[in-house]
């Protein structure tokens, strides 16, 4: 029991360069700012986060925003603009801990108002932003780190556990998504027509997709490959763990470390999400998901490929 506790404490106490979580921070900050700015410029924020009496489309749920005076145009508008500013500050790494906290609170408040007009990326964004509050992501690729260097201070390592939880969040999202794909349109042996129907639905289309209707066999292949990709997501966490413990014995660990499973898995995911973004309207889902991809590599690995510093185990 004491040995297991010691290993757990050592794992939680492990520190690494901040480069990986810094990339997550930049992508999420820009993603939040762009998302909020788009909602502001198109007035969409009024439809999803205001009551019907104020121009909204659906009734609102009770939320913590009631403590701020309710979901009024003034309150919601101020939060949207705050999200733009705090998102940009987060991306630039200016007063990073404060920017992360403000962005997290704004995102959580707003996405809990319009529960009938949102998506799973609302929760993904909230969870990762919350972890960024503890990740020390301002220690690299940031205004904060630049100011530290100007004062003659060296970069500080950051705790590794927030990054591991980001990877866990990604795996849980993919795995839970695929277990909900239980219709005949998704699972092998069925018609595999799920993506064909999705691409022909106006509620999902980014533009008219009637040209894709004859591509039924291609959409079948995309449906089955997406289903398989999401089912393999637990291997991403296992592969990361095997690389972290690659000095240990074990046939399976040795075989998995012969080829870095993360690279082909994340490359397929990149192509998948770029395809989704190009053809479907899915909000900030693509940006958030790809932002978490950076967390699948250790700060040492990212720093090695950006600054030539020797790599250490994940």
Task: Explain what this protein looks like in three dimensions.
- The chain has 314 residues and is mainly α.
- The protein has 2 domains: 160 residues, no CATH class; 124 residues, no CATH class.
- 62% of the residues lie in helices and 1% in strands.
- It contains 15 helices and 2 strands.
- It has a two-stranded antiparallel sheet.
- The longest helix is centred in the first third of the chain and has 23 residues.
- The C terminus is likely disordered.
Element layout with pairings:
Layout: H1 2-13, E1 15-16, H2 19-41, H3 44-49, H4 73-92, H5 96-111, H6 120-132, H7 143-150, E2 158-159, H8 161-179, H9 194-199, H10 216-231, H11 234-244, H12 251-258, H13 262-279, H14 285-293, H15 299-307
Highlighted features:
1% strand; globular; 62% helix; disordered C terminus; single chain; mainly alpha; 314 residues; 15 helices; two-stranded antiparallel ribbon; 2 strands; 2 domains
Number of helices: 15
Distance between the termini: 25 Å
Uncertain stretches of 5 or more adjacent residues: 308-314
> Overall 3D geometry?
globular
Whole-number total of structural domains = 2
Spatial ordering of strands, largest sheet: 1-2
As a percent range, the share of strand residues is under 5%
Major sheet details: 2 strands, antiparallel
Round the Cα radius of gyration to an integer and report it. Answer: 21 Å
Please tell me the overall pLDDT: 89
Number of strands: 2
Computed structural class: mainly alpha
Summarize the helix and strand pattern as letters.
HEHHHHHHEHHHHHHHH
Helix amount: 55-70%
